[in-house]
Amino acid sequence: MPKFLVNVYLVTLLVFLGHNVEGLGVNWGDISSHKLPPKDVVKMLQENGIKKVKLFNNDETVLNALAGTGMEVMIGISNQLLKDLVNPEVAKKWVKENVTRYEPKSPKGVNITLVGIGNEPFLRDYKDTLTNVTGPALENIQNALNDAGLGDTTKATVPLNADVYLSPSWNPVPSAGFFRADIVEPLKYILKVLDKNNAPFMVNIYPFLSLYYGNGAFPFDYAFFDGVSNPLKDKDGVEYTNCFDANLDTCAAALAGEGYSNMTIMVGEMGWPTDGNPYGNVTLAEKFYKGFISYLAKGKGSPRRPGNIEAYIFALFDEDRKSTLPGNFETHWGLYYDDGTPKFPLDLHGKNKTLVPVPNVEKLSKKWCVVKPDVNNFTGLTTYACDRADCTPLTKGSSCQNLNDADKASYAVNAYFQSQQQKDDSCDFEGKATVTTKDPSQGTCNFTIGFKTLTSLAPSPSHLPSSDHSSSSDAKPHSSSSISLSPPKSLAFASMGIFFLVSVFNNL
Questions:
Q1: In what order do the strands lie in the sheet with 72-77?
Q2: Boundaries of each X8 domain copy (predicted)?
Q3: What does the alpha-carbon distance between residue 389 and residue 384 come to, in Å, rounded to a whole number?
Q4: How far apart are alpha carbons 240 and 253 in whole angstroms?
Q5: Nearest Cα to Cα of residue 493 among 171, 116, 161
Q6: Which region, left, alpha or beta, applies to residue 287 given φ > 0 means left and ψ of -120 to 50 means alpha?
């Protein structure tokens, strides 16, 4: 090969290997009983080359850890505060206390670039309680940012669920996308504010949920990025080979229909769980993320939105205190386990560098809590433990579903034992359980070991369950032991986003 061609090849190869997915960020949630030190998490983010972080609140410790790093930070305002922010003076005070004080324009400050106004406030489950306050809250926060001299670098937006747009049943293709009739007027208000301030439209897109709620009607391969043999065909010969592109372009069509063809679309959440459902496992999560990273790195975009796409992976860590009402997979969205260990190798930036763990995490001793061999009634033990620890791996379709009843009870009491930092009295259950140094893990079911933390829940001894204990204040708001919980119908419908694809593929 001529020397010139060799050099061109090497340069091309280096460019490909070094292609940085600049638009990629992560959601850093905190609905966990045990949290990792924010400074160590930030070190991990830096080592992984992650430059964008999306928070759901404005935790001072987390923000202080992000100060001086230069990372682009999105902070959040809870839905509960939206009604108060209809008052412009409250909005000004909020911006002063939660944005201005962190000096977002200073190299030593927190580079706050986005403020999320609520979280998916137009879900049908909220029954319009937030419909008419979200727009005014958005406008007041953005005006307060502008008045503080921050409006050019810090934008307010509304993280929305993909259920805000759809296509008609008689023409179920992305180009026919439009906004839901019941929220179109409040959305017009929001779009006007976003457009005036050059702020992005943010939407959460979950191909996993389309597959999950499709009940077998949604084509499996369409949730990933490997292509399909029978693509969805839109007008003018445009073909869609994955759910993400179709969903994004339905959103783009809806925006165009309201006169905002050029408004930036930002994906606020995008991920795949690793347990709690037959589709939620490490193998499929790794497949999804590798496909998505490759998709972003190409910079091709979707048919209606060509070019680079900015998206935030959901989520950074598993969160064991999340409600399992939408599904038992809710506590397993993390790229990392709650102890800061990566679940699988993943190259985020095409630099042949896989994920690194959170540093300085000290695991507890290699010991587990198990039920004693002579115990034959496990219901009370399991119920008590699972009301206070995450037992979703025991549910149908999950990693520990094949355990026998005794081993399931052992998994439950061990989950409680580890959540209580292996305290001496947390593996007793009035003589029905004992500590062992032999790992009881089997097959796909991993009996975890906890890690040292300063943020555990208030400890409680492992008494036998009773009616009094079942209402204890340390019980989880939605018990993971409720294996058969079903999502509300409206939430299931909403979470599918591009739900019409199910009917489309039924007819292909």
A1: 155-157, 112-117, 72-77, 52-55, 24-28, 311-313, 265-270, 201-204, 159-161
A2: 367-447
A3: 9
A4: 14
A5: 161
A6: alpha
Give the C-alpha separation, 329 to 18, whole Å: 34
Catalytic amino acids? 120, 269
- Token pair 């759901």 in the structure block, residue: 56
Q: pTM to 2 decimals?
A: 0.88
DSSP assignments along 440-455, one per residue: --BTTB-----B--S-
H or E element at residue 419? helix 405-419
Q: Is the dihedral of CA 55, 27, 197, 83 positive or negative?
A: negative
- Write the DSSP symbol of residue 174: G
What is the full DSSP assignment across 299-347? T-B-SSSBS---EEES-SB--TTS--SS-TTTT---SB-TTS-BSS---
Quote the CA–CA distance of 48 and 59 in Å, as a whole number: 22
Coil, strand or helix at 205: coil
Supply the pLDDT for residue 20. 56
User: By the 8 A CB rule, do 451 and 421 touch?
Assistant: no
Query: From the CA atom positions of the chain, what is the Rg in Å?
Result: 24
Q: What is the pLDDT of residues 434-492, one digit of tens each?
A: 999 999 999 999 999 999 986 644 333 333 333 222 222 233 333 222 222 223 323 32
Question: Which pairs with CB-CB distance under 8 Å and at least 24 residues apart come from 377-383?
Answer: 378/405, 378/406, 378/408, 378/409, 380/464, 380/465, 381/409, 381/412, 381/413, 381/429, 381/432, 381/433, 381/464, 381/465, 382/408, 382/409, 382/412, 382/481, 383/465, 383/470, 383/479, 383/481
* Residue 74 phi, psi dihedral angles, 5° rounding: -110, 125
- Going from the C-alpha of 225 to that of each of 231, 459, 473, the distances in angstroms are 12, 45, 45
Which has the minimum average pLDDT: 74-83, 383-392, 459-468?
Answer: 459-468
Looking at residue 13, what DSSP letter applies? H
Helix (H/G/I), strand (E/B), else coil: 135: helix
pLDDT at residue 506, as a whole number: 44
Helix ranges, 99-172 (H):
134-147
* 285 has pLDDT over 50: yes
Nearest residue to 271 via CA among 223, 315, 316, 337: 315
What is the rounded CA–CA span in Å between residue 300 and residue 156? 27
Which one-letter DSSP state was computed for residue 1? Answer: -
